[in-house]
Amino acid sequence: MPEYRFNAIAANGKSVIGIVNSSNIISARKLIKEIAVKNKLKIRSVEKKSTYLYKVKKQGSVTGITGEQKAYSAKEVEAALQKLGYNVIYVRKKLFDLQLKPPTSEIVSFVRISADLLREKMSYGEILTLMINDVTNKNLRDALKDINNDLKRGEDSEKVFRRYEHVFGRFTSYMLGLASKSGNMAEIYSATAKFLERNQEFRKNLRSALITPTITIIVLILTVIYYVAEVFPSTAELFLRFDIDLPPLTASTLKLSYFLQQNIGSIILLFLVPVMAIAYWYQTKNGKIYIHKMMLKLPLIGNLIHKSIIEIFCRVFYSLYTGSAENIEPIRIAAEATGNKYFEDRIKNIAIPIMIRHGKGLTEAFEAAGVFTKTAISRFHAGEETGTVKNVALQVANYYESETTHKLKFLIEGIQLLIAMFIMIVITVLTLISAETATIRPKYPGMSFINLILGWF
Length: 457
Fold this sequence. Notes:
- The chain is mainly alpha-helical and 457 residues long.
- 70% of the residues lie in helices and 10% in strands.
- Helix 3 (104-119) packs antiparallel against helix 4.
- The longest helix is centred in the middle third of the chain and has 57 residues, at 185-241.
- It is globular and about 100 Å long.
């Protein structure tokens, strides 16, 4: 998350410098204003930490050295380089400093390797140094460098990792920050790696089950529309010029072609407007909650998505649950980790308030939320009675992982079979149209008289 530094003057006339993290300058100024009002400060300036490109030369050297450095101003970079004994040729702000999130595979690899090295009793500082040298993604490498420097300065690990939610994701940042303060970093890193690997695998399977088939069908439909609207008429109209009667299938296809040509704009709008409206609505909080709710009710795939969400919740809940009275935060984090806004909304606005305000137990709160299956509720109820809620959460996660993995595999195979059949049907129809077109014969002069003579015999 971008970092902003503010300079202010306190009521006693002393200069105050502070740093805040925010997603954009507007929210940063709002946060700084709240701090100023609370502490009676007069804000003088707000500066964003940016990346600066520089070129320097050492005394007596012919070749220059280029690099980049993050700072709040070009003057800071120039002063730091001069302090190191360099002659500064230039320092300028990087124009396009896009902070894109690293690929999930890179983050999973970092967490998994760190977990394995922690089990081998390697210090965390050594692990970060190794990963900084080996990570290929620039944004992740820069984030690890900054984290390593912040931890060496003695900053709180949880606050440090929270600053990099835009790199690791909210749940991963929370877990990695928590791990540094826990008594067993290796266990928390292993649990986080397991969650990330499982989540990545499910998303990959979901793409195979939904996105890839959808793209295939859309491309096929567009290809057929192009053939019918543009390619086919050039052949069929050739016969009309010679006043040849078209067979039924060819004639119907030509009518469809004319309809598409005359109404192509309306057809595009008919499909494009609802898609854009849904996409816009999806950006709103209520829209996202409703669409995520509908995802759980999709035929065939909805049940698997629902169980996978419960699996993710239980796996994260297992990692964070301590058995003490302060377990609202683990429930909230686990709900956020699912990535389903409807599930998260029901947990935060129904289950958690019931536990806090009415003092209800875990099972009653989860049942009231209405987002858990009967199997999950019964297992949590048994765990609550026997004091094994943590172990039960892991059992439910493993059970649904096994079930969804096998069922999703069969579902993908079934969908691939349906797509193959659909493609076969489309190709068969196009072949029939082409075959019928090939049987059309022109009317030669005198053909009617010859047919009349043959009819007498």
